[in-house]
Amino acid sequence: MAALASEVLAALQQQAQPAAPAREAAADGIIYDIGSRAWAKASSYLARILPEWRDIAIEEHTNPADDWPTRWQDAAEFSPHLAALEYWAKRSDEARRHPLFRTHHRKVLLKRFWYAQQIPTRTTAALAPYTPWILQHGDMDNETIREMVKYETPKWSKETWNERLGSLAPDGEITPRKARMSLRRATRRFNESAAHVLKLVGKTGRPYVSQHTREHRDQQLQLQQRWIQATKAIKEDGTVFELTDCVRSERERFAELYALIKGQETYFTAKKHVPTFITLTAPATFHINPSHGEDQWDGSSPTKTQAWFTEQWARARAALAKKNIRLEGVRVAEPHKDGTPHWHLMLYLTTGQLPIVREVILEYFGHSPHAVEIKADFTSPKKGKRATAASYMLKYIIKTVRFAASSGTSAVGDLFLSAEADDTDAWRATWGIRGFQFFGTLFGKQTLWRELRRLETQPDEPTAKRLWRAARGTRAHDFIATLAETDPDLAAIRETKWTEPDAETGEIFKTKKGRVVGVQIQCVPYITRGSKWTLETDYSLLNEMVTVIHRDPRGGNSGKPEPPPNPIPTPQNRHEHVTA
Question: How many CB atoms lie within 10 A of CB 36?
Answer without folding.
Answer: 11
